[in-house]
Amino acid sequence: MNDMAEALRIAVTLVLSGDGDLWEIVLLSLRVSLSATALACLIGMPLGALLATQRFAGRGAAIVCINALMGLPPVVVGLMVYLALSRSGPLGTFGLLYTPAAMIIAQTILIAPIVAALSRQVLEALHLEYDEQFRSLGLGRVAAIRALLWDGRFALMTVGLAGFGRAIAEVGAVIVVGGNIDHLTRVMTTAIALETSKGDLALALALGLVLMVLALVVNAAVHGVRNSEGQLAHA
């Protein structure tokens, strides 16, 4: 019990003192996860808007596939990206394996289906609500999608935050393609796993505290966005 208390004390000290190694890991985690979230939103939100507003052959199958991809096993995604980026793979010449770029690619593949599926649900509900009005105004396809994206901006912000929350907590895929290399590809989740296995509970706890704070911040942001949306709806 005394050992745990001492480890927690050291962990808090590491966080508050601005330990260089700790914050290097935290900043890399944020850079990787924010980049992956931005890419996933650029891919997933337009795809969600397309599925929400257009009717075409195979739409139902596409929705089923997107929903199924939300449950992709992270280690399988990591393996696929590893094979693609390895020297014998089709993208091996770029030398991206065991770099932050490889981790961003893996996280993007993981969260893009989540963003696409949630965006479709949000925009499809709005499309059903406004479709008749859009028709009466003679809005074209692009203009209608722009109007839906603007009206659903708060809900879509929540979708983006959900994607970031999924990315920042990822461990399986990033450890496969990143290798957990010190000062290069070590992020919070992989560092926690490594330091715990080494018995360095202080650093693991410090990173865990930061990760928990980030999770709270993301959830608070989601709650704030929803409250803002509700206030505007009743205004």
UniProtKB/TrEMBL annotation:
Primary localization class, coarse: membrane
Membrane-traversing stretches: 32-52, 64-85, 97-118, 154-181, 201-222
Keyword Transmembrane helix: yes
Pfam families given in the database record: BPD_transp_1
Domain of life: Bacteria
Classification via InterPro entries: ABC_perm_TupB-like (IPR049783), MetI-like (IPR000515), MetI-like_sf (IPR035906)
Record's bilayer topology term: Multi-pass membrane protein
SUPFAM superfamilies tied to this protein: MetI-like
A GO biological process held by the record: transmembrane transport
Record-level GO cellular component terms: plasma membrane
Subcellular location: Cell membrane
Keyword entries, A-Z: Membrane, Transmembrane, Transmembrane helix, Transport
Domain ABC transmembrane type-1 span(s) in chain numbering: 26-222
PANTHER family listed in its UniProt record: PERMEASE COMPONENT OF TUNGSTATE ABC TRANSPORTER
Record-stated family: Belongs to the binding-protein-dependent transport system permease family.
Protein name as it appears in the record: Tungstate transport system permease protein
Species whose genome carries this gene: Roseivivax lentus
